[in-house]
Amino acid sequence: MNWKTIVALVVLAAGLGGFFYYDTYWLTPAREKAESAKGRLWAAVEPKDVEAVTIKRSGDTIRLKRGDDGGWEILEPVKTRGDRATIDDVVTGLVTTRVDREIDPNPAKPQDFGLEPASAEVRLEVKGRKDPLVLLVGAKSPTGAWTYAREGGKPAVVTVSELVGRDTARPVADFRDKTVIAFDKKSVTAVDLDVGGDHVSLQSEEPGKWHIVAPNAYRADADVVGDFLDKLGAAKIKEFVTDAPGSLSAYGLDKPSVVTLWTGKDKDRASKTLRFGRVEDKKGVYVARGGEPGVMLAPEDLWAAFPKTVAALRDKVAVAYVYDKVSRVDLASARGHVGFERDGTDWKITEPERVRADSGAVNSLLWGLRDLRASGFLADAPSAIPRFLDKPDVTVKIWEEDAKAPKTVLLKSSHLQSGGRPAAVLAVEGQGPVMLVDAKALGDLAKTEADLRDRSVFPVFDMSAVKRARLTTATGKPLVVEQSGESDWKVLEPARGPAKATKVTDLLLALRSLRWKEIASPTGEDVARYGLDHPELEVSLYKTDGAELGTLQVGKQTGDVTYLRVKSGPAIYAVENKGLDDLRRMPSEIPG
């Protein structure tokens, strides 16, 4: 191939590429635009170019103007925000309306078509056009599928979609913004609340964190504030009651409750206000925007979410701490003293003796303390703590990583009630406030070593590490099973054969789930008394390398308990009989 051929091919490829680009990005969109405009009343106009709309009817006139942000403002019959979505839909419907057919080029009686006078006269002011586009909207056709219309300045009567008639007959309320109060929650830096002569001010130092700054300084409940702002921002007007109220007292707005939202800081600081009036039973609450005379009906749940007292706004977290940073805890109560500390991802008891802790029980206690909420406040100053908690019933000390001293929680029973339920008094030593909490917390926190220690009988093991199991009864020969493959098992003794894998799994789960009810003999003395000199059943588990994971011996049954021990330790445990039913059946159920 010579160089001339190569040049010709390159030029041809470039030409084809250029044509493809021109066709894809210029000709095709142009064709699609021309196709979409075919048959339209105003083919050269797009909805985005409409800057103002006037709909004149026999009873009223609606004037709309597009704002710099693309939204809409109603200028007449009331000056207020417009519902952008609704107005955009109406404008799009008018601009893109298509003529179905011409009915009469020059009717002698336009009134026969509802066009003298017209039901509505629509004027669209379009960017780049000196004169507005005018459409006279008349009556519906006999079938109701079409509406008679006439373009301004032209005599011909045409039919257009009945949607044109519907949209131009909409009540003013349809065009109004139904948002009770428009704001960006992320931009709100402060909130003022006025209820019944009481004033509360809140400030946000960072998104999602709020503090009460007046009448006194307190931590605020971020969930309560956030929920109120969410409901306030999402609330929609149920009814525009009146734009010119004769008397505000009729709506309870002469002495309203008020919320003021502050956005921005310094010179950019701005506010929006909403006044709350009387609650209309089963209908809603009367509200009015600041600077606007109109009265509206908002959902009643908006008023229900309005925080009406300082107590409702206060942070009700009784004890603030970070669970992941807790390294040690001490509990003291009339039931005794117990200390425990973190051991990797688990917990271990350190006092009164060093034993393994039940991590589930410890975590439940700590999470319960973390989730404890105040139901009332008795005093704010730390100096008031001795007056209410001179002799606490429960003391909890929490050490957190990097903390210089523990956080000491004091809890005491009380004759007081909160919300009709028994309450206890709680405070963090050296801090305020003194608060009321559910009296149930006394029992939840007054735990002993026995409540929190690990009650597992068999040593902890990973089921995937078990390679072999031996079950020996007092009267029979040992049953030995071994894993074959990833999930199958086989019997090795007393005779080779298959084993039921599901039953082996049940055996392992039963061993892992065994919990003692009490320690019958910590030192393992007098094994004959508990039937462990000649066990009823003995179960041993082994790893792949033959190392023993543990051996459980099942002894005598007395009443509702059976005595057990693990061969590697001296203690003898009493376990409820129902936890051993599966184990007792395994020697006969596993083979097969």
Detail the topology: elements first, then pairings.
Layout: H1 3-37, E1 50-57, E2 61-66, E3 72-76, E4 80-81, H2 84-95, E5 101-104, E6 120-126, E7 133-140, E8 146-151, E9 157-161, H3 162-168, H4 172-175, E10 188-195, E11 198-206, E12 209-214, E13 218-219, H5 222-234, E14 239-242, E15 257-263, E16 270-280, E17 284-289, E18 295-298, H6 300-305, H7 310-313, E19 326-333, E20 336-343, E21 346-351, E22 355-356, H8 359-370, E23 376-379, H9 385-388, E24 394-400, E25 407-418, E26 421-428, E27 434-438, H10 440-445, H11 449-452, E28 468-473, E29 479-484, E30 488-493, E31 497-499, H12 501-513, E32 518-521, E33 537-542, E34 548-558, E35 561-566, E36 572-576, H13 581-589
Antiparallel strand pairs: 1-2, 1-6, 2-3, 3-4, 5-9, 6-7, 7-8, 8-9, 10-11, 10-15, 11-12, 12-13, 14-18, 15-16, 16-17, 17-18, 19-20, 19-24, 20-21, 21-22, 23-27, 24-25, 25-26, 26-27, 28-29, 28-33, 29-30, 30-31, 32-36, 33-34, 34-35, 35-36
Helix pairs in contact: 12-13
Molecular structure report:
This protein is an alpha+beta fold and 592 residues long. It contains 13 helices and 36 strands. The strands form four sheets. A nine-stranded antiparallel beta sheet has the order 4-3-2-1-6-7-8-9-5. Strand 20 and strand 21 form a beta hairpin. 26% of the residues are buried. About 1% of the residues have low confidence.
Taken from the alpha-carbon principal axes, the silhouette is elongated
- Describe the largest sheet: 9 strands, antiparallel
What's the alpha carbon Rg, rounded to whole Å? 40 Å
Global mean pLDDT: 91
Question: Would you report the number of β strands?
Answer: 36
First and last CA, distance: 80 Å
Proportion of residues in β-strands: 35-45%
DSSP helix fraction: 10-25%
Count of separate DSSP helical elements: 13
